[in-house]
Amino acid sequence: MRPEQDRMHSDSLLNMNNQSSVDESLYAVILAGGFGERFWPLSRQAKPKHHLALFSKGSLLETTIERLEGLISRENTLVLTSASQADAIRKLVPTLPCGNIIVEPDRRDTAAAMALAAAIIARRNPAATTVVLPSDHHIPNPTAFRSTLAKAVQAARAFSQIVTIAIPPTFACTAFGYLELGQPVSDQSPARQLLKFHEKPDAQIAQSYIEQGNFRWNAGMFVWGVNAMLSALKHASPEFSAFAEAMIATHEPDDFLASHFPALAKLSFDRAIMEKIPSALAVEAEFVWDDLGGWPATGQYLPQHPSSNASNIPLHQIDASGNVVFSTNPAQQVALLGVSDLIVVNTGDAILVCPKDQAERLREMVNILPDHLK
Prior knowledge:
The protein has 374 residues and is α/β, with parallel strands linked by helices. The protein has helices at 3-15, 60-66, 83-92, 109-124, 142-159, 203-212, 226-236, 238-249, 253-260, 269-274, 295-298, 362-368; strands at 26-32, 77-82, 101-104, 129-134, 163-167, 178-184, 192-198, 215-225, 281-284, 304-305, 309-311, 315-318, 324-327, 334-337, 342-346, 351-355. It has two domains: 3-284, Spore Coat Polysaccharide Biosynthesis Protein SpsA, Chain A, CATH 3.90.550.10; 295-373, no CATH class. The chain has twelve helices and 16 strands. The chain starts with a helix and ends in a 6-residue tail after the last helix.
């Protein structure tokens, strides 16, 4: 597809938002295998982060699927998850066909998940284009989100490359990886060359990225055609490539998955594949985004109280500021006296109290808890 055709196709994708039919060669794969320990005690192994309804009636996973409405059909929407979560996810999203809940037999990180996704989509439609999304992001404007995805889809089709969504940074964040962007690929396309992935930086390096102006946050969202993904796997990793090709060819996919997936290396897709392929593209997001990495990030979305306190329940305060309070009991009331920058979470069977700057250590806490609280 030529660039000028590419732009026209993007318009047609956007117009689908107001039509009853969608592009049947367009698929979504939603990654929902994590546990989200940084949201303990609300998140548990039996109810991970993407099961939570933090700011709306629906869970983060349900909201992720609904956000695709009008662009990708439910029949073409797949969820990759773990065996321990599969039944709960089937109940959470009953509108998805049962065969679209793909159970990973072991936790192998995102490189293995992406190889599996490529194989499954290739078996269904070798000419498909696929959007891969995490299940736990907060994106309040779905229309702007679909607009960006449509542009990424048209770029993936026009240039036969993997496309990632680049988030314009709003501050020098040290909790996200960064994307270093190059020049636009053409006058007709919004896509830019992706020069390099950068791991989470320290504060000084993050500030330098902001000052340079061509760095964006890495949100872990990708768009690719089947052939482009299989070519990338072949170039970057004989192991993941061999798995995908064999998975495509096998007559017993369930047995093959159960016996071969657990042996795959535990590597991120960025490190195993994207950092090794010769070229990739990025399309800048036109939407507000947050990955909701933990309790500190939720404060800006909860009801606001004086002195920068945030809480989903009634709050009383004296000389208290910058605190985040959350309770599963809407009738509960909390009093804060002389404390600042705390996280206070009550789920009935457990209470968390910790400074905001210690929230990243919640995984350590979960590791020492009795099993019934994990």
